[in-house]
Design brief:
- By secondary structure, this protein is α/β, with parallel strands linked by helices.
- Helix content is 36%, strand content 22%.
- It has nine helices and eleven strands.
- Strands 1, 2, 3, 4, 5, 6, 7, 8, 9, 10 and 11 form an eleven-stranded mixed β-sheet that branches.
- Helix 4 runs parallel beside helix 5.
- It is elongated.
Length: 274
């Protein structure tokens, strides 16, 4: 991991994400990219295109850069290479295009909590970034100021298509020397016998060099509740799962996982693209 993107709207929630990104950057010797998206009124778009030096535009840029500089001066960023950018684009479009053009390895986004990403990403923007991002997205909740990562739950159906995301998940877990808790959620609509579930997980794990882990099968009324309830039952620090670009949070179980999981979980969630 070399470059971590932290979109910021200068809220306290976004700064929580920056604190976590700093923690990860120190452990992985990565650079942090601070990105502020200026979503200006439509009538100003032509002004930017035709006359980027007009006073109103210059004021927006100046104030944003001043605030970014104040963030860069925080003690928790000392010793970390931090580069700041101001872009004129809608939040989710700008984040996705910037990450693809700048070889970003991880996106860390602040959240207002169980109500979802409200300032950095509003409404459906949450689902769009998580669903469409080609790189892992780590969603930090409002009360999270430190990511321990020592008890990392990874929920999956452990099918062949999840092997590449699983490799990325293992790379991320090594940053924290985390214990991996692998879980398959079984529901009335995606029922598998215990024997079959155990065989699927055992065969899957056999293809990887992994030692510090445990395997679990958890029954619940649906996938989302199963992941949340299981994670709470073992006091997990972090939840990991796969996403699928066509349909949102992956159909990596028989049946689909609700795209609201990222918003509803009170714990940090990291997603990996299938």
């Amino acid at each position: 991991m070399k470059r971590i993107l932290v979109p910021t709207d200068f809220s306290a929630h976004a700064e929580n994400a920056l604190r976590i990104a700093a923690q990860i950057a120190k452990k992985s010797h990565s650079e942090i990219i601070l990105l502020h998206m200026l979503e200006i009124p439509n009538q100003m778009n032509d002004a930017i295109t035709l006359a980027p030096g007009i006073p109103e535009v210059m004021l927006f840029i100046k104030k944003s850069k001043e605030t970014l500089q104040k963030l860069k001066d925080q003690d928790y960023l000392k010793g970390i290479q931090v580069t700041e950018y101001v872009e004129f684009e809608k939040a989710f479009d700008g984040i996705l295009s910037f990450s693809s053009k700048n070889e970003i390895d991880l996106i860390v986004i602040g959240s207002h909590g169980i109500s979802g990403l409200e300032e950095v990403l509003v409404g459906s923007n949450t689902e769009k970034v998580v669903r469409l991002s080609e790189i892992p997205v780590l969603v930090i909740k409002k009360d999270t100021t430190e990511l321990k990562g020592t008890n990392f739950v990874f929920a999956s159906d452990f099918s062949q298509e999840t092997k590449k995301p699983f490799e990325k998940m293992m790379e991320f877990s090594k940053i924290f020397d985390a214990k991996l808790t692998l879980v398959m959620i079984c529901t009335p609509n995606s029922f598998k016998s215990t024997a079959l579930s155990e065989k699927i997980m055992t065969d899957f794990v056999a293809d990887f060099k992994i030692t510090n882990y445990s395997k679990h099968i958890y029954n619940d009324v649906n996938i989302e509740k199963g992941i949340l309830n299981f994670s709470n039952s073992i006091n997990a620090n972090l939840i990991g799962l796969c996403t699928h670009g066509r349909t949102g949070l992956a159909h990596f179980f028989t049946g689909s996982v609700s795209e609201d999981l990222v918003n509803h979980a009170a714990k940090p969630v990291i997603t990996f693209k299938i």
